[in-house]
Amino acid sequence: MIPWNPEALELFNRHGENHRGALLALGADPDEVFSDWKALIESRAAAAGEREVEPGRVETELIPLLKSSQACPAPDAPPAVPPSPPRDPSPRAPSTLQKWFGRSTAVMLWILGVFLPLGVLVFELLAGVCAEILFDPIPTWGHALLIALVPAANALALAMGSRERVRAAGTLFRWIGRLNGMAIGIAAFYALQFILVTPFAVMAIIYFGIGFIPLSPLLAFISALAIRSRLRRARFLTEAPPPAAWWRTALPAFLLLFLLAVPRLVVPRYAPQVSDPDPAVRARATAVLRVLGSRDVLLRRCYRTQEPMDFFTLVLGGSFRGGRPASRADAQTAFYRVTGTPYSAVPPPRLKGLRGQDLIDSDWWDPALGGDQVAARIKGLSLSQSRLDGRIDSASGTAYLEWTLEFHNASPAEREARALIELPPGGAVSRVTLWINGEPCEAAFGGRSQTRQAYQQVAVRQRRDPVLVTTAGPDRILMQCFPVPVDGSMKTRIGITVPLLVPDAQKAEAALRLPRFVEQNFSAAPEVQTSVWLESDQPPLEVKGGTNGFLVLNGSPYSIRGKAPADSAASAPFLLLPLASPPPRVLSRDARLGANEAILQTLDLPEDPAGFPDALAIVIDGSARMDAHHAHMTKCLFDFLPPETRVRTWIAYDAPKTVDGKPPFHIRYAGGCDNGPALVQAAEWAAENGNAPILWLHAAQPLDSPELEALRQIADFSRGRLVIHSHQYGPGANRIAEQLADLRLIRPLPVLDDRPMEIINLLQNRSGRWHREKLAGDAIPGDVPEGSSHVARLWAAGEIARLSNPCRKTGRDEAVALARTWQLVTPVSGAVVLETAAQYKAHGLEPADPSTTPGIVPEPGTLGLLLIGAPLLLAARRRQGGTNGARSGDRRQTV
Amino acid sequence: MTSQNTSYIAQWMAQMRRGWLETCLLNVLAGEELHGYGLMLRLQDIPGLGISEGSLYPLLSRLRLQGLLAVRRIEESPDGPARKIYGLTPRGRQILALMNDRFEVMKRQHQTAKKRSTP
To answer: A625 and which of A65, A108, A699, B7 could share a cystine (Cβ 3.0–4.6 Å)?
Structure first.
C-alpha cells in the first residue's frame, strides 16, 4: 500500500463528507464505502507506479465514483436525485484559522490530557499534599499505575495523528482504543472524587492562579473524550477496525477504583462496632473488616480521625456510615481484632510523599506516657546496661534477685522507659532504687493508686525523676521511669524476693526461673545482654538458657555467671538446685514482726502426686499469633493429655466455638480474638463439673475484654475453687489477667523448659507448696534453724493476698498497710521513687529506710547457716575427693 | 431515436436496474466468494449490465447491512494487499432463491403479455 498525500487525503475527505448523505440515502454505510473507494484509488495509483496518492489521482478516480454511485439506489429509495457536484472540487488548503485551531487543539490536548495529569501524579507522589489536606488519591502503587495510565493512553492516542501511524499500528489500534476507554473511566472516577472541591478549585484558579491539581482529573476526562473523537475520525480515514465501545473498558476501570475505595467506606462504619456491647455485632463487624477492611486505612485511623474529603466518603459515606463516628480508641481496638497485632507494635504510618516522615511526630509524641501500658517502642530509647545479681538460699527455699537497668535516650525529647517484666513464679518486688545525681535513692511503698498518682504528678506534670513499679497481673510487674534525659541515662534497680519452685515433689529438686521482659518500649541491641551473677549455697544441678551457657564456679558460695538476652522475645533462663531431703523447715525473724514472733516455713508435698483432674476445660486462643505455636500446643494436648480425662474445648474466636473433646487438629487462626467470651463459657462448664480446672493456652492479650463481669460472678460463687491455668505463647501483655488480678483466678503455669509435656505435668498435683505461718511464744519450735528474712517477706506477701481477697469485705486497708511495712509491690500496692522529701511528703509517702531493704550481702540468718554448713560441706567434699581421686584442681565447670 | 426517447429509456432502465443489479450480484456470489475487484470483473463480463465501482461498493455495503452478504477480511501479505472477501449469508441465499423464482414468474408474465399482444 502506498501513502496518501495530505492534500489528497483532505480532498477525499471533503468530497466524501459532501456525499455522505447520499450514501446514507442509498442504505449504505458511508465509512465502509469510503474505505473501499480509498483502497481502490490506492490500488490504481500503485498500478500506475505512483509513490503516493496525489490530489490529481483523487480527482480522476473519486468524481466518477461519486457520480456513478447514484446509479444504484436502494430498492425502496425514491427516484434518484443526481448528486450535487462537489462544491469545490479543486483541492483546498485549510485556512490559517483552521490550521491554528487544529494545532492549538492538539497542543491543548497534550497539555491537559497528558502533561497536566502526569505532572500532578508526580507532584502528589513526591509531596503528598492532597493526601494531607483532602484525601489520599494514591493509597497504593496500584492506584499510581492506574492514574499513570491516563496520560499514557492519551499520549498514545494523540500520537496516532497520521493515517500512516494508524495503519502501522494495525491491531494495536484497537488496544489504543481500549486504553482510551480505561483512561476515560479512571479520569471520570477521580473527576467525581474531586467534584465537591471543583468549584473551589475554579475560583482558586480565577483569583490566585492555582488549583489545577483538583481540576486535573476533570480536564483529563474531557481530554480523553476529545481524544476518543479523534480516534474515531482517524479510524474512519483508514481501514483500521473500529475501536471497541468506550464503556467496555471505562466501566471496569471505574468499578475497579470504586472497589479499591470500599475499605475507606467500610472502616468508618464498622470500626466503632468492634467495641459494641453486643457480642454478635462485634463478631460481625470484625468479620466484615477482616474481609473488606484495609490494614493501612485502619492504622491511619489509629492516629488520625480526620474524615477524607472525597466524594464517596462525603456523599455515599454519610448514608453508609450510620452510628457514631470512629474514635482513635475504636480504630486501635479494631486494628488488633482484625490483624492480631497491636497497633503500637507496628511502625506508625508515614506521611504520603517521599518526605519519609511518620504520620505522627514520634520523635516527640508518646501517647502512653504515664499510662499503664507499655505501648510502642520509642526511637532512640535503648537499654544500655543490664545486670542481674542474686543470692539463692536453697536451705530457706528462697532467692533474692536484683536487676539493675540503665536506659539511654538518643531521641530529641525526654522519654519514659516502660517494661512489663515477668517475675519468677511467686516472686514479689521488695526493693526499688533509682540513681538520682549518682546517688541511689530507695523507693517508698504505698497504695497502688497513691503511688501511681504521685508518679504521674511528679513525672508527667513536673517532669522530675521518679520510677514507679506496680503489678500487672499475676507474676508480672510494670516498671516505668521518667524522664530519661536527652542524650543522658537513667539507672534503676528492682529487687525481687523469690520462693524456689518445687515442680515435682518426687524429685529432690528446686527451681529458679529468672525474670525477663515480656514487653518493652525501648530497644535492646544484641550486644547489650543481661549480665547474670548468682551466688548459691548449693551447686546447681542444671542451668538452662542464656546466650552461651553458664559458668559455675565452685566455692563457698557457688557462683553462676553468664549472659542472657535482654529482649522480650527471649525465654527466661532457669536453674535446678538440689533440695534437702526431708525438705527443710526454717524459721524467719524480722524486726517488723513482734518481739516474740517468727515465721515457720515448711514444704507441703501432695498426698496423691499422680492425680490428674477428671475433667478439664481447654480454651485455645484463636488469634493469628497462635499459628506459630500450633504444633507445640497440639503435641501437648494430643500426646500427653490422659485419655480418661473428660475434656471440652473452646476455640476463642470472636464468637467462641465449642468442641466436645480435644480440639480439632487443624485450627484456623485469624486476627486478634477476644478470649473473654470463651473463658466465660468454659468457666460455666467448669462450675457445673465440680470446678474442673481450665487450661487457657493463649497468645498476648493486649486489649481489655468487655465480657469479664460474668466470669467474676462465677469466680465469686466458686469461692476460690475455680482456677484458670494459663500459658502464654510469645511475649506481650495479658490485659485479661490484669483485669482479673484481684480474683487470683488466673494462675500462670510456672513453665521452665517450654516442653509440651511440661504443661500437662504442671496440671497434675505434683508440685510442692511452701507453707508459712506466724508463730509466737512457746509455739516457736526450738530445733528449727533460722533462715532468710525473705521467708518473712513471702509470708507477708501471702497475708496481703489473703487480706485483699475480694471475697472479704474488709482487709484491703490492712493489706496496704502490711505492704507498706514489708515494702512489697502487690496488687494493692506499688513502689515509687521520688526526687525530694517534699514530694514524698506531698503525697503522704515515706521512702524506705535503707537499713530495712534487702540486699545481696548474706543476711545474718543466712550467714549463720553458711557458717554451720560450710565445715560440714568441706568435710563431705574431702571425703568425696578421697574416694573419687583428684578433682579439686579444677574449680570451673560449665553447665 | 430522438433524444426524448433516449431520455425516457434511460429513466426506465434506471427503474428496472434497481432490483436487477443486485439480483445479478447475488447470483455471481452464489457460485463463489469474491473480493470487490473480482466481483467487478465478473459483473462487467455480463454484457450491458454497465456497473461501475461507484455503484458497486455502495450496493455491497447496503446488502451487507441488510444481512444478505458476509464480509471477511484478508490481511495484507506478500501475496497481495488487504482485501475484503464477499460471500452470501444463508439469508442471502434464501432471498436469492426467491428473487430467481419471482424473476421466472415475471419472465412468464412478460412472455404471456407479449403473446397476447401479438395478433
So the answer is: A699
Q: What is the pLDDT of residues A329-356, one digit of tens each?
A: 888 899 999 999 888 777 777 766 655 5
What does pTM read for this prediction?
A: 0.68
The residues of B whose Cβ lies within 8 A of any Cβ of A are: 14-15, 17-19, 21-22, 36-37, 50-62, 64-66, 76, 81-82, 84
C-alpha distances out from residue A38 to A65, A71, A568, Å: 11, 20, 80
Amino acid letter, residue B65: L
What is the three-class DSSP state of A191?
A: helix
**Strand arrangement, sheet containing A574-578:** A509-513, A574-578, A542-544
**pLDDT tens sequence across A684-730:** 999 998 889 999 999 999 888 887 888 888 888 887 788 999 999 98
- The region that residue B67 occupies, defined by phi over 0 for left and psi between -120 and 50 for alpha, beta otherwise, is left
The Cβ of residue A555 has, within 10 Å, a number of other Cβ atoms equal to 10
Chain B environment of A36 (Cβ under 8 Å): 36, 57, 60-61, 84
Question: What is the Cα–Cα distance from A306 to A300, expressed in whole angstroms?
Answer: 10
Contact A619, A693 (CB under 8 A): no
CA angle A627, A631, A632 (to 5 degrees): 105
In a 13 Å sphere around the CA of A275, the CA atoms on its Cβ side amount to 19
Whole-angstrom distance, CA of residue B66 vs CA of residue A26: 12
Angle subtended at Cα A411 by Cα A410 and Cα A412, rounded to the nearest 5 degrees: 120
User: Distance, in angstroms, between A43 CA and closest chain B CA?
Assistant: 9
Q: What angle do CA A511, A517, A519 make, to 5 degrees?
A: 140
Query: Out of A27, A69, A75, whose CB is closest to B54?
Result: A69
Tell me which of A58, A60, A72 to substitute to probe the interface with B (most B C-beta atoms closer than 10 Å).
A72
Pairing verdict, β A550-553 and A558-565: antiparallel
| A668 alpha carbon, distance to own chain's centre | 19
DSSP helix/strand/coil, A598: strand
One-letter amino acid of A231: L
Tell me if residue A54 falls in helix, strand or coil. Answer: coil
DSSP strands (E only) in A668-712: 694-698
Asked if A43 lies within 8 A of B81 by C-beta distance, the reply is: yes
* Largest Cα span, chain B: 65
Please report residues of A whose CB lies closer than 8 A to that of B21. 72
For B14, name the nearest residue in chain A, comparing CA atoms only: A71
The DSSP-derived string for B21-90 is HHHHHHHHHHH--EEHHHHHHHHHHSTT----HHHHHHHHHHHHHTTSEEEEEE--BTTBS-EEEEEE-H
The candidate with the shortest Cα–Cα distance to A66, out of A90, A43, A37, is: A37
Query: What integer is the mean pLDDT of A533-547?
Result: 86
Q: Convert the pLDDT of each residue in A841-866 to its tens digit.
A: 888 898 888 888 888 865 544 444 44
Q: Which three cell numbers stand for residue A789?
A: 528474712
**CA nearest B78 in A: which residue?**
A1
pLDDT of residue A407 exceeding 90: yes
DSSP secondary structure string, A522-549? SB--TT-EEEEEEEESS--SEEE-SSS-
DSSP SS3 for A560: strand
Rounded to an integer, what distance in angstroms lies between the CA atom of residue A41 and that of residue A59?
10
Closest CA to A275 of A737, A733, A708, A706: A706
Cα atoms in the Cβ-side hemisphere of radius 13 Å centred on A715: 20
Name which of A535, A689, A727 is nearest A613 in CA terms: A689
Report ipTM (2 d.p.).
Answer: 0.82
Chain A positions in Cβ-Cβ contact with residue B64 (cut-off 8 Å)? 29, 32
The three three-digit cell numbers of residue A177, written as one number: 482504543
